[in-house]
Design goal:
About 40% of the residues lie in helices and about 0% in strands. The protein has about 70 residues and is mostly helical.
């Protein structure tokens, strides 16, 4: 177990904990994080799959701004 994981309480099966799901980035790419206002943070944390929701929201915004091509 890595030093970082040793400090966290493991939930579920250790064999599957923190395993990549094939979405996003490689292990070497650091995650992007943001601080949110308390009200928005509470809503986001209440979502079943908040990572997927945040990814979709970022992709949608980038497409609207013309920074990412829209998939047809």
């Amino acid at each position: 177990m890595s030093h970082c994981m040793a400090k966290k309480k493991l939930i579920g099966n250790e064999a599957t904990q923190f395993q990549p799901k094939g979405v996003g980035c490689s292990e070497k790419q650091p995650p992007v994080s943001v601080k949110l206002p308390v009200e928005i943070d509470a809503i986001v944390r209440s979502l079943d799959n908040r990572s997927e929701f945040i990814r979709a929201a970022i992709i949608e915004k980038l497409q609207r701004e013309g920074l990412l091509p829209v998939d047809n």
